[in-house]
Amino acid sequence: MLSTNKPAPKSKITKIVNARLLLDHKIVKDSYLWFQDGKIIHPQNLFFDQHRDADEIIDAQGMMVVPGYMDIQINGGYGIDFADHEGSLDKIQKDVDTVAKGLLQYGCTAFCPTVVSSAPEVYNKVLPLLNKRKGDAKGGSEILGAHIEGPFISHEKKGAHNQEIFRTGKRGIDEFDEAYGPELKKGSEAVSIITLAPEIEGVTEVIPELANRGICVSIGHSAATIDVAENAVAKGATLITHLFNAMLPFHHRDPGMIGVLGAVDLPAPVDPARHPSASNTSPDRTKPDPRPFYGLIVDGVHVHPNSVRIAYYAHPKGCVLVTDALSALGLPKGLYTLGGRELEIDDNGAAYIKGTNTLAGSTISIDQSVRNFRQFTKCTVVEAIEAATLHPAQVLGISDRKGTLNPGGDADLLFLNDDLEIQRVFVYGEEVELTKNKK
Amino acid sequence: MRLIIREDYDEVSNYVANYIKERVNQFAPTAERPFVLGLPTGSSPIGTYNKLVDFCKSGELSFEHVITFNMDEYVGLPKNHPQSYHTFMWSNLFAHLNIKPENVHILDGNAPDLDEECKEFEAKIARVGGIELFLGGIGPDGHIAFNEPGSSLTSRTRVKTLAYETIIANARFFDGDIGKVPKLALTVGVATVMDAREVVVTITGAHKAIALAKCIEEGVNHMWTVSAIQMHPKGLIVCDEDSTLELHVKTVKYFKSIEHVHQALIGTENLSLQGGVKQIRPTVFNQRPMNHPYE
């Protein structure tokens, strides 16, 4: 067979041996992982056509090798809040870099910086610095675009957001473009996910337009009843923001947004690749699931472990682990800020608005989330890892290059021991120097 | 011809893998004098390949100076098609060995000039000094490689049209759809295989029993091309009990007795790997009747 006319790239080929790989939803032993130029490759063509063998062999010593974790809801860390707009652009850029670098230590190789409800000036200033950006071992985790949470959300379910900034969608998409500025028009290049409350006036009607721009529409911080929630999904919402938190509690006669997990007659998904795969719990077990994905904060504080388990087994393929971590992530207990409000971190790592019982976010890391999740649900190792890798990649429609170890994917890799503790981290094929003590 | 009979598929695979390991290690290949191995595809060699991979991983067998030539490849199938023989050899063998990519030769079923490709393949074999050991299987119709019934016994590497029986047998790899199976293949000829200094054929399963019987108990016949092994000075067939079901009892007993004689009267210390005998042990008068069953 005549190969392409380009000469073979002479860049280094790396082969990982003695590893247990997560391939095809299974842990596989006698297979190898090859990567070159930051991408996972299928070595067969190189072997036969270019007579290339591996240049470097990495011995994984029996450890599990899995895709890097992805966190699609994280507000900051290391004292930095993504919604903080004070300071020069340079300072904000540096801050973003600091968080991106720090997240690598937790095995998070890609994330969506989340910005809580803010005024238009804040978005105008901050969003351009949160555009998509490739990751590398020294520069930090890949940025997948911003997650803008609010201000088109419910006063009743504001959590720690500042309700004075909340808006309605009376004037349709124009209202949204005004609220967020020009970055929203760039669609998925700048904004990956938007959280909104469908019961707010004019909001549900805008969902199709936002989805058209490639943005993942997520419903949350909402007091919607089950029909309003299902209607939002029918209009194109594909994610529920931190299930159980900032929404109506489950009531057996009106299960609210949580009840979407039990929906049967939602319309068939327009873009099946951005919906959960079929499972035994799907309305039609052979077709992609019309139900949306749902984020879960698994620090054990935001959601009781039993509730996590119930939600998971109702809709396993839709579960996405998120940290909703705050600026306090990576720092000791004390007082911090989020979106201009003062927070207090207690011994459990839970963050409350100072002087209240209102949860404001967590200080959990994504790798601890995976360990907690496995413990809470007693699911398999593969299922726990997929909830932090494959599923978030599906939410953003990038599962061809993220969240899997298939050829063509980015070589974002984690080496885990049997307790799912991180031993080595690779971003785009380069190893990250881990400084923190392995937990 | 030697016929080694073992209990089942696993024992046959172990025997052949060990045999190849011993042969390569005794040969002690170097860069100037490599060990040239001919290899088959299909379900027969998979057990052997797994064992060879184990030997390579444990360090008992190195493929650094081993050159391989495969028997055949489908015409028109992309090299990275899941059913191509390139894919088969990569995933079952080469991915796990320390073999050099430039030492691996498989016919290219997508070459612009197929005849040229076949001639060049023969030339490559000649350039490395010919094949030291050719490993092969057998089809239910007695074919070696894709040399279907009617192939000349002096044939060389060429394009072949597959027989209907072969297409049916291979349909199981193409979703059971006969329409999807390639109809043409490039294959080494009968003479190409027999030109090797040693030929080892593995035959397992009751469905191969008639083929085995035709190939060793009847004449050299182009309808059962493996029968050409009868004319080879160093032919070895390793088979399981099931595949001997169509052989004469006498044939089976004879070959089993050979192994018994080797163990008891000659001793492994006097026996070379390829069956050569130095001398026999001091004899002990044997009370056993000649027709006693041998293990």
From TrEMBL, chain A:
Belongs to the metallo-dependent hydrolases superfamily. NagA family. InterPro entries: Amidohydro-rel (IPR006680), GlcNAc_6-P_deAcase (IPR003764), Metal-dep_hydrolase_composite (IPR011059), Metal_Hydrolase (IPR032466). Its cofactor is a divalent metal cation. Residues 64-432 form the Amidohydrolase-related domain. GO terms for biological process: N-acetylglucosamine catabolic process. Substrate binds at A160, N245, A246, R253, H302, L359, A360, G361. It comes from Mortierella isabellina. Binds 1 divalent metal cation per subunit. This is N-acetylglucosamine-6-phosphate deacetylase. Keywords: Carbohydrate metabolism, Hydrolase, Metal-binding. It catalyses: N-acetyl-D-glucosamine 6-phosphate + H2O = D-glucosamine 6-phosphate + acetate. Zn(2+) binds at E149, H221, H242. Its EC number is 3.5.1.25. One of its GO terms (molecular function) is N-acetylglucosamine-6-phosphate deacetylase activity. SUPFAM superfamilies: Composite domain of metallo-dependent hydrolases (SSF51338), Metallo-dependent hydrolases (SSF51556). It comes from the Eukaryota. The active site is at D324 (proton donor/acceptor).
From TrEMBL, chain B:
One of its GO terms (molecular function) is glucosamine-6-phosphate deaminase activity. PROSITE patterns: GLC_GALNAC_ISOMERASE. CDD domains: GlcN6P_deaminase. GO terms for cellular component: cytosol. GO terms for biological process: carbohydrate metabolic process; glucosamine catabolic process; N-acetylglucosamine catabolic process; N-acetylneuraminate catabolic process. Pfam families: Glucosamine_iso. Keywords: Carbohydrate metabolism, Hydrolase. Gene3D superfamilies: 3.40.50.1360. NCBIfam families: nagB (TIGR00502). Belongs to the glucosamine/galactosamine-6-phosphate isomerase family. This is Glucosamine-6-phosphate isomerase.
